[in-house]
Specification:
6-stranded parallel sheet, single chain, alpha/beta, 11 strands, elongated, 3-stranded antiparallel sheet, Rossmann fold
Length: 301
């Protein structure tokens, strides 16, 4: 029978001796959860004897069941959280160099802090996906009708200046594959041949050769974000080629993958077990890479 959490108590939960596991309803239905309410945290803590956080993907949230509950009950990290933190530490604090980041997505503005945090620690950063269109346009290359952000030239200049200062090489596509629309066939082009109604939707063959060479010269790889519009198989070659190439490097490289779309790529190729670590998290993964202190991890520390 469904009950309000505030009306539950520890003795009542296991009144039936046959019960071995009790699962509470989604506590985000309670406004006190996201409000990080002290009384709610204390109530949750009263229902158990120890607290184990094994949800790294939620640990960037300063919520009652994530951070404040640890004030009222002996608290520990779980196996998955430890694995996530250890893997991310290996690519941010305990790096085996040379280290390379392949980073994609739609907006540079949403990942600028990640890039800036990684530049002093990484040897190479490869910018792909729609993010790369901004750099191509900034460099005076044709991008046709491709997705790009307006008014961010200052961010791109900031990236290149900071990278040069820290001796980190920034790479971006040398050639691309285009379509007139998202469900189109794929056509490879050099930038000089791009027409006004062309959309850049994947990297080209010259770019793949360069990325593979960078991977060969790396000891550690972090990958977050597909290389193209992989939802259309005609523009998925860049992502799948790089996924398989990293996977086949075996113990020659330490590889970490994070982000829902990137994980979807490697799952579709059935090569997940060939990467050293595949992160379960989205927002928490990115915030950790930004150098932010995650409330859930801080509370356990």
């Amino acid at each position: 029978m469904k009950k309000n959490i505030f009306n539950l108590n520890k003795e009542e939960i296991f009144k039936n001796s046959n019960d071995e596991l009790v699962i509470l309803e989604n506590i985000r239905f309670y406004p006190e959860e996201e409000a990080n309410d002290d009384k709610f945290s204390k109530k949750l803590a009263s229902l158990g004897e120890i607290y184990v956080n094994d949800a790294f993907s939620c640990s960037h949230r300063d919520h009652a069941s994530v951070s404040k509950i640890t004030k009222y009950i002996p608290s520990y990290s779980g196996i998955q959280i430890n694995a996530e933190v250890n893997a991310l530490n290996k690519i941010t604090s305990e790096i085996k160099k040379p280290v390379t980041c392949i980073i994609g997505g739609s907006k540079i503005s949403s990942k600028i802090n990640i890039i800036k945090n990684l530049i002093p620690k990484f040897n190479s950063i490869i910018i792909v996906g729609a993010m790369a269109n901004n750099i191509l346009k900034y460099k005076g290359l044709k991008i046709g009708n491709s997705v790009y952000e307006k008014n961010i030239d200052y961010l791109i200049q900031e990236i290149f200046t900071y990278a040069e200062k820290n001796k980190c090489k920034i790479y971006f596509p040398k050639d691309v594959k285009i379509g007139k629309k998202l469900n189109d066939k794929s056509f490879e082009k050099d930038f000089k041949d791009i027409e006004d109604d062309d959309m850049i939707l994947d990297v080209g063959s010259k770019t793949l050769v360069e990325i593979k060479k960078i991977i060969d010269d790396s000891s550690t790889i972090l990958w977050n974000g597909p290389l193209g519009y992989f939802e259309n198989e005609n523009f998925s070659l860049g992502s799948s080629e790089i996924a398989k190439y990293i996977a086949n490097r075996g113990d020659k490289i330490f590889s970490v993958v994070g982000g829902g779309d990137t994980v979807a790529v490697i799952n579709s190729l059935n090569v997940k077990n060939k990467f050293n670590f595949v992160s379960t998290a989205g927002g928490a993964f990115l915030e950790y890479l930004e150098g932010k202190v995650l409330p859930g991890i801080k509370a356990l520390n």
